[in-house]
Amino acid sequence: MGENAISGHLKNLKIDTGRSETLVVCFGEMLIDFVPTVGGVSLAEAPAFKKAPGGAPANVAVGVSRLGGSSAFVGKVGDDEFGKMLAEILRLNNVDNSGMRFDHKARTALAFVTLRADGEREFLFFRHPSADMLLTESELDKNLIQKAKIFHYGSISLIKEPCRSTHLAAMNIAKAAGSLLSYDPNLRLPLWPSEEAARKEIMSIWDLADVIKISEEEITFLTGGDDPYSDEVVLKKLFHPNLKLLVVSEGPNGCRYYTKEFKGRVGGVKVKAVDTTGAGDAFVSGLLNSLASDLTLLTDEKKLREALLFANACGAITVTERGAIPAMPTMDAVQELVKTSRS
Question: Angle 116-120-125 (CA atoms, 0-180°, nearest 5)?
């Protein structure tokens, strides 16, 4: 079977929502996470593992769709059982997966991930290379990318060629078509050859984004150790002239926001956390879903604060269940939590 061939039951997976005016296209990796069946253990101590779909861009695509929005995923998996499973999961979640490609030589990426008793995350990746790293520019669905109201991506696709060049080409296609570019670096240091390489590549596309979401840890990393809570650090070192919105996620404490006109903070929504996997992706999907419906919130602080409270609630709901994609919330659930958080 050729690299782009899609077998039997995977044909015709394009979801025609008729909502391309609000389409969020997510570019990057989709993989299988193997998570211990018990919590608080190292990978070596885990008695067994449960498989779960993973990959931040794919999580965001599902998150947008779960909220009732229109989304698509562009990326590559192996022409293997795991790759077919991931394509099917997107289809079942109403994500347009017509931009997915299947590689018959390389396997779908695997990641073993655990949250140890000391609170530290431990990762072990199998990508030597994996199919997601081998997506080429000729395999891009240009028509799909050009339809994007928002084109969203991370930094993992910048680690190696040919995916790095493909990532840059996809950004250029989206930008030329008038899409809003959304960037969540989603730092995963174990995947990079060095800290210096990670910093250099993550910052190499920084000035092209319209919207950027980062965490406190990423501020410290990207600035070389500066105070992540300092507005001055963020505005001087990370805000750039083309940026319409920079959001700093603070987990359960909510988020900070910066635009050319205003800055501020929106508090978190209190819940009992079970598993923080996918919380940042749920936050991003909540924000992008709001943005896709109304770009004016980038210049209207009251609307932006509402959208960020909504995004905080998306993240909060996700931590109350295990896994990323299974825990992505519905619009009704988020609106209910926002309402109760105000009462």
Answer: 85
